[in-house]
Amino acid sequence: MSGITLGTVQLGMEYGIANKSGKPNLEKSFKILETALAGGVNSFDTSDAYGDSEAILGEYFKTAEKPLFTTKFRIDPAGDTSKAGIEKQIFDSAGRSVDKLGIQKIPVYMLHVAQDLARYGSAVPEALKKLRDSGLIGIPAVSVYTADEAEEMLRYGIFGAIQLPINAFDRRMVRAGVIKKLKQAEIIVFARSVFQQGLFFLKPEELPRGLEFAGEALLKLKRLSESEGLSIAQSTLGYIRDMEGITSLVVGAETPEQISENIRLMETPRISERLINSIETEFEGFPIEKVVETLRNRPAS
Fold it and tell me: Is residue 276 part of a domain?
């Protein structure tokens, strides 16, 4: 698996706090995918909830060698949530994703809302086990927001991969010991929100309503990066890239140039221990939950 997993939500819908170009057209989407492949990226993240992202990937890879796809599914609480109903929902979702992606087997199939594990109990992992045994999926996985959700995922023993938020401002998974436990369990760890949906690249005066409080931290991050002769992108990507227990960084791109730059940054030298210690000290008390909640309540565009 490549160190970068291309997140493709931007190909299917307008997404990201710093997104100024909107959803790319099909030609531009194909160019982004082409650039990623040329740079050695062989892992692509999508979801049935990302607009037409799955269909775009399926169209591009129609006549090409299939990469490692991770796609996600949701349980519809308005649908049948009996054990049999949940199983049917999951099987139906997998069938739709297989058709859109143009594949016979989903390499990594991920529960999009980890709260459904607590809400529906063993019905979800049991359905995923049946899917895996049938050969329709490879690795069952979960996307989490909190350490508690990660702990819940580990209880079942069936999940082989996880996607979680982690970045220079968000060390909740490290503090809770989750990263260490996942490494011990040999779980594939996809790190998302490495740039906090582009927040790190905004100037304080560009912050939207509700996030003004992050301005001081952003200036501090800029100063720390520049003190090492690094850009914010290089310091923040390098911080997660170099962290023990991280398998692949889920990074999106709105342009071919962005994915080229991220691929280049993956090849840069390790960041210094001094910068690592500064990041972990300076942003220890940063209210990341407030950022997450604010971004979650913003419209996709």
Answer: yes
CATH number, domain containing residue 61: 3.20.20.100
Q: CA-CA distance, 211 to 206, in Å (whole number)?
A: 10
Rounded CA separation 180/223 (Å): 30
Nearby residues of 193 by Cβ (< 8 Å), 6 or more positions away: 165, 166, 167, 170
Tell me which amino acid residue 251 is. V
Would you write out the chain's pLDDT as a tens digit for each of its 301 residues? 999 999 999 998 654 444 455 678 999 999 999 999 999 999 999 999 999 999 999 999 998 899 999 999 999 999 999 999 999 999 999 999 999 999 999 999 999 999 999 999 999 999 999 999 999 999 999 999 999 999 999 999 999 999 999 999 999 999 999 999 999 999 999 999 999 988 999 999 999 999 999 999 999 999 999 999 999 999 999 999 999 999 999 999 889 999 999 999 999 999 999 999 999 999 999 999 999 999 887 654 3
Query: Residue 301 falls within a domain, yes or no?
Result: no
| Closest of 37, 132, 57, 47 to residue 102, by C-alpha | 57
**Cα-only R_g, the chain:** 19
The helix/strand/coil state of 163 is strand
User: How many domains are contained in the chain?
Assistant: 1
Domain that holds residue 55: 4-296
Helix (H, G, I), strand (E, B) or coil at 67: coil
Question: What is the model's pTM?
Answer: 0.92
Coil, strand or helix at 190: strand
**Residue 109 · residue 94 · CB < 8 Å:** yes
